[in-house]
Design brief:
It contains seven helices and six strands. It has one domain. It is globular, with a radius of gyration of 16 Å. Bound molecules: iron/sulfur cluster (2 copies). This is UPF0260 protein ROJ8625_03073. It comes from Roseivivax jejudonensis. InterPro entries: Puta_zinc/iron-chelating_dom (IPR005358), UCP006173 (IPR008228). Belongs to the UPF0260 family.
C-alpha cells in the first residue's frame, strides 16, 4: 500500500466492525476515508426543499489528477470553510455526504463496500469501481458561482 497517501498500516483487521465511530483512534478514523473526492465537490442546496445537488465543480485545493486535497494539513488557511468530520459533527453533515462515504455508511450502521481500500489493500480500487471523481472535475477558480448549475452531475456510485 505504499502508493496510498493514507497510512492504513498496523490497524486491527476489520476494526470498523468492532468499534463505534467514537471509539476509533485517530489513525483508524483517517483510514476510513476511501479517497473518492466526492466531498470536495461543491453542492447546490435548495433553501426551500433542502434538496442537495452535486456539481463537478471542485474546491480550489482539489487536485483532479490525484483525487486528493493538495494541502490537507494546512487547508484551513486557504479554505476556512472546509469541514472537519468527527464523530460529533457527522450528524450535522450526513445528509449531504456522498452515499458511498465510509463515514456516512458506518454512521448509518451499514457495511463498507467491497471496493473500499481497507478491504482491497489498494487505493486504486475506488477508482476502478467508478465511484471516485478523479479526472472528472472542473476547478471552482475557473467558474463564476452562477455557472455551477450548468455542472450538476449524478453522484458516481
Ligand atoms: S466522501 Fe467520505 S470517503 Fe470520500 S473522500 Fe470524502 S470523506 Fe473520504
Ligand atoms: S480544502 Fe481540501 S479537503 Fe477541504 S474541500 Fe477543499 S480539497 Fe477537499
Amino acid at each position: 500500500m505504499s502508493d496510498d497517501p493514507i497510512d492504513r498500516s498496523g490497524l486491527s483487521p476489520r476494526f470498523w466492525e468492532d468499534k463505534r465511530l467514537d471509539e476509533m483512534s485517530g489513525a483508524e478514523w483517517e483510514a476510513l476515508c476511501d479517497g473518492c473526492g466526492k466531498c470536495c465537490l461543491n453542492k447546490l442546496e435548495d433553501e426551500d426543499t433542502g434538496e442537495v445537488a452535486l456539481t463537478r465543480v471542485a474546491c480550489r485545493l482539489f487536485d483532479d489528477a490525484t483525487c486528493r486535497c493538495a494541502s490537507y494539513d494546512t487547508r484551513h488557511a486557504f479554505v476556512p470553510e472546509c469541514i472537519v468530520l468527527s464523530p460529533k459533527t457527522i450528524p450535522d453533515h450526513a445528509y449531504w455526504l456522498p452515499s458511498t462515504c465510509a463515514y456516512r455508511l458506518l454512521w448509518e450502521g451499514r457495511p463498507l463496500p467491497d471496493w473500499h481500500p481497507l478491504l482491497t489493500g489498494t487505493p486504486d480500487s475506488v477508482h476502478r469501481a467508478g465511484v471516485s471523481v478523479r479526472g472528472q472535475t472542473v476547478s471552482e477558480v475557473t467558474l463564476d458561482e452562477d455557472e455551477w448549475e450548468d455542472h450538476i452531475i449524478d453522484e458516481p456510485v
